[in-house]
Design brief:
heterotrimer, A alpha/beta, B alpha+beta, C alpha/beta, A: alpha/beta, Globin-like, 5-stranded mixed sheet, 12 helices, 5 strands, C: Transcription Regulator spoIIAA
Chain lengths: 323, 134, 127
């Protein structure tokens, strides 16, 4: 299908297998739609008719699209409009070519993705399908006035195929949205591994949220760099905000502690409740490598002690002057 | 789909260092971070050492790869040595590299994104590892 | 092929060995043997091994460092490994390598402070 006009579609579009739409999956969808060989024959039989009405249908189709502000905006440039009309015609023609295999599916996915990329919302996209079906239904009716039952049956076959297309198109929208979400989550994770220097040679690492392997590595990496850059001797790692501490997470924490140790830094773990600690020990984890202190304040005080600080209040606290 | 490829013959322990230095260079060229470069170099060191210790000779093939828009590095360490009689056992964590036991394979797997071990007793071993730019 | 040797300096009763670049297994063993010999001769109290310049510490290198520490201990000396870089520490931990009872410090300065050779706040003593 090396159609040069369609080359613009080949920009990094999701492959069927990336989306999990392989041949087996497509067969299941066809089975569910009850789209079979008879339907393929019917559609092939409509080929001549389809080619005959391709141009007038396209004109009517775009007439409708351009009549609405929301959809008109996509086709402001007349060159774009001309090119898109060609591609759309090609799309419609393929509906009756009779080949609904791998390359057909790949093509449909590409087209769906292209529409998603230009931000054409599903409501208009699906509305366009509806309009097209009605245009075709009218023409089928006209071409078989003496056999309305057959016209109807033909229409039903086309409808099955169009619903297969719609399913694929909707999948590309969902896939694109999920990819974006994944990227955003990734970005959030990277942003949320702060390491703070709270005193000379003392770092505070507050860990909040869910710790999976990837995030644990980011945290460790970030901490180790900070230890070097700040010449830290002690790290207070607070896990109060960690959602769930199971044995996997505990192992990540232990690894972080060991790595920091290789760089000469001690780690005090705060915020590990005794319940959780007991549960972990029960699971067979050796926690004695961890220097744990119940709460953050206690941990910081311990850290200061280790660094040779002694904190003393100079005189009874005075309330700040009132304004 | 491998792009450029570098073969490093592994015959003695000096080659271990060569292999990992070239591995690091390739990783850097591919845009992998310093940490990732170190992970690759370390993994190469482990598998190349296995070749020297168990098979005495073999090769490490380093190549730039690209799959589904992702860029990466592929390391293939192969030898025609005695092979690993029980690959599942060799891959089991607990075969730590800390001791003198074990071949460091589970560790190398942790360092990389993809890891495949294929071995036939009497014929040889091939370890294929990949790391991708995040 | 000339074997790269690691220079070993003596500062009072402290031996300082700076590993400059990746050593082959052979050279590591040579270094270990020479170092342990010097520990005995110099009646050193402390051995500091600076690995700042090493970009990889794999299982063999780690085992060798532990073995050096063990030998030094037999001769009455403490061993402190200094200068493990963040990326190297990260890789070691991923690989499951530990220096177990070997002491570590951030760099040479910290290492010397740890053993009391210079004033300072010390490093990370082994558990």
């Amino acid at each position: 299908m090396a159609d040069p006009r369609l080359a613009w579609m080949d920009r990094a579009h999701p492959l069927p297998h990336e989306m999990g739409v392989d041949e087996e999956e497509v067969e299941r969808r066809k089975a569910f739609l009850e789209f079979g060989e008879d339907d393929v024959d019917v559609l092939r039989g409509l080929r001549e008719l389809a080619r005959k009405y391709a141009d007038p249908v396209i004109e009517e189709f775009y007439g409708h699209i351009l009549a609405f502000d929301e959809t008109k905006s996509f086709f402001r440039d007349p060159k774009v409009l001309a090119r898109v009309k060609e591609l759309q015609k090609d799309y419609f023609v393929r509906l009756t070519e009779g080949d609904y295999g791998k390359s057909y599916v790949a093509n449909r996915l590409k087209v769906g993705a292209a529409h998603e990329q230009v931000r054409l919302e599903p409501k208009w996209y699906l509305g366009m399908y509806s309009y097209y079906l009605r245009l075709v239904a009218k023409r089928m009716q006209e071409s078989l006035t003496n056999d309305p039952a057959k016209a109807f049956a033909n229409f039903l076959s086309l409808m099955k195929l169009v619903f297969l297309d719609i399913g694929l198109a909707v999948d590309t929208y969902i896939f694109a949205r999920e990819s974006t979400m994944r990227k955003q989550q990734e970005a959030i994770r990277e942003l949320s591994t702060p390491v703070l220097q709270i005193r000379e040679r003392l770092l505070l690492l507050p860990i909040i949220g869910v710790i999976d392997t990837h995030r644990a590595r980011l945290i460790t990496d970030s901490l180790l760099r900070s230890i070097r850059d700040n010449r830290a001797k002690v790290v207070v790692m607070d896990v109060t905000g960690v959602a769930t501490i199971d044995s996997k997470v505990a192992n990540h924490l232990i690894q972080t502690v060991i790595a920091a140790g290789l760089m000469g830094a001690s780690v005090i773990v705060t915020g590990l409740s005794s319940d959780v600690a007991q549960a972990l020990v029960g699971l067979g984890l050796d926690l004695h490598k961890l220097n744990t202190v119940g709460d953050l304040q206690g941990g910081i005080e311990e850290a200061e002690r280790l660094l040779g600080y002694r904190v003393e209040r100079l005189e009874p606290s005075r309330s700040p002057p009132r304004d | 789909m491998p792009l450029t490829e570098t073969r490093v013959p592994i015959e003695d322990e000096e080659d271990i260092v060569t292999a990992r230095q070239k591995g690091r260079q390739l990783a850097a060229a591919r845009g992998l971070s310093l940490t990732e470069q170190t992970l690759i170099a370390t993994a190469i060191s482990e598998v190349a050492r296995n070749i020297v210790v168990y098979a005495h000779r073999g090769e490490v093939v380093l190549s730039a790869v690209e799959e589904q828009g992702r860029r990466g590095v592929m390391v293939v360490a192969r030898d025609e040595g005695p092979g690993i009689p029980n690959p599942t056992l060799a891959m089991r964590d607990g075969f730590s590299t800390g001791n003198s036991l074990g071949m460091g394979l589970p560790g190398a797997k942790r360092l990389m994104d993809e890891f495949e071990l294929s071995s036939t007793v009497g014929k040889g071993t091939t370890v294929t590892m990949k790391k991708w730019v995040r | 092929m000339p074997v790269v040797t690691v220079p070993i300096l003596k500062q009072g009763d402290v031996l300082i060995a700076s590993m400059q670049e990746a050593l082959s297994d052979h050279a590591l063993i040579e270094f270990r043997d020479r170092l342990s010999d010097q520990v005995g001769r110099a009646r050193a109290r402390v051995v500091i091994i600076d690995v700042t310049a090493l970009d990889v510490l794999d299982s063999f290198a780690t085992r060798t460092l532990r073995s050096i520490a063990y030998t030094a201990q037999l001769r009455g000396a403490r061993t402190v490994v200094v200068g493990i870089q963040p990326e190297v520490a990260f890789a070691m931990v991923q690989l499951g390598l530990t220096l177990e009872s070997v002491e570590t410090a951030l760099d040479l300065e910290e290492g010397l402070a740890l053993v009391g050779a210079i004033a300072g706040s010390g490093g990370h003593a082994a558990h």
